[in-house]
Amino acid sequence: MSLPLAEVGFAEAAWVMVAKSLVIFAVVFAIIPVLTVVERKVLGRFQARYGPNRVGAFGMMQPLADALKLIGKEAFSPDRSVPLLWTLGPILVVFSGITVLAILPWGNVQEIGGGDVGLYGIDISIGILFFFAFSAFAFYGLLLGGWASGSKYSFLGAMRSAAQLISYEISMALALLGPILIAGTLSLTGVVEAQDSYWFIGPQVVAFLIFMVAGFAECNRAPFDLPEADAELVAGYQTEYGGMRFGSFMLAEYLEMFVISGIAATFFLGGWMGPGPGFLDPLWMLLKTLALVFVFFWVRATLPRLRYDQLMALGWKVMLPVATVNVIVTATLVTVL
Amino acid sequence: MDGSSEKFPYLENADELVVVQRGPEPGGLKGVWRSFRETGRGLKTTLARVFEGPKTIQYPEEKTPVYPRFRGRHKLHRFEDTGLEKCVGCSLCAAACPADCIRVVAAENDPANRVSAGERYAAVYEINMARCIFCGYCEVACPFDAITMGHEYEIADYNREDLIFTKEILLAEPLERTPLRTEDE
Predict the structure, then answer these.
(1) Which of A132, A144, A171, A321 has the maximal Cβ count within 10 Å?
(2) Is ipTM beyond 0.95?
(3) Which of B45, B46, B114, B111 is nearest to B78 (CA)?
(4) By CA distance, what is B27's nearest residue in A?
């Protein structure tokens, strides 16, 4: 089947697609605020303390209080900022995160209400390239935001993030090439279906590790949170941002984390594969994704921030060669076997 | 320091040799293994904290018990049998106070209507809590044990004027809001 501008594996009526998009959007945006408070609570536990527990039961209303506070703030912009780009920065970052949600597969084609519905936004044939295109888009948001702030700290933070994202994007793409070679398709549903008998984390454990480490760097999370190194660059590219614009950057960070975990679950942990009937598929996918998100929290609680030269050395001298060797070995084995 | 005399002939005393402990050289497969192992060790350490449980004392609801000799807010005392104030307005506490936060104005007792057991009593007795450093010298200086340090430490307020505690406040039985440490704690 084909839609204008894209070759797709499976497509439904337009209204079904709209409904699916709304459901995915609503569910993920219900999860993101919970993630923010859960991260703080989990981080608290890692440090033998409670974390937020004052707002609502178990502090679960904390994100609501945070959002209200951020929205209530003045939409301030610095004197020397470039207004259009300044506003565009956070928008681009959130936009890039949301777009990738479209291709995350939550389950296979199911019969719901008499018609076949694919439990994903859309199954495009270029699949993972879409993800790379739009996750690289986030980098424009950071760079523009940092540059348009008209502040040297923001600019330095933006430069760091730019260099970091470019360095790790390559290793990330190379890491995903392994599973793609085995599955023989770029489509995310295709990759999951190829993991019917075994998960790709088995043969591709090196690729999985590289992808996760590059994922930490992609999301600007510890131990690669140099772009927003609070101790060195004030707050990096976000220095001049306040209110909900700052909130958007934070939202994008959690969204990105969720998306990267989702992609990793799809490519290495068998995506929606799990015991039980078909309608449980999204649950399995969510469970695997959240487990990987927990790893993000865990690593943040454990590892100290890398020095900038160490970051670059790790990216170019270790991750890239290892990822390349992994691809070559995988390609050879796939051809021979 | 075996062989250090050949290596460092200019050293007169082998004890002067300082050996610098350096970390292992990076690189090689050994380095890869080491970095993985150490990262794993770190992850294990943090995860162990999760199972250990939080150590937090939820302050406004839970409080750290204080020791019996904890120097908190002052108390002025009365004789239990007669109800007369122990303070005779001698101002020794004010003289001992290094922060100069105690003000005493003494007055003669009226024999028909005694306030204190002595000849004179404190007509005004004020402690400026904003200046008090809780050293306890007033307690030591007092010849009649009229002033002692209590256990209360929650005395923050919004106005400086409210922090000047008068005799009535100091004489009144304070709310015991602070748990006292027991023997085994």
Answers:
(1) A171
(2) no
(3) B114
(4) A318
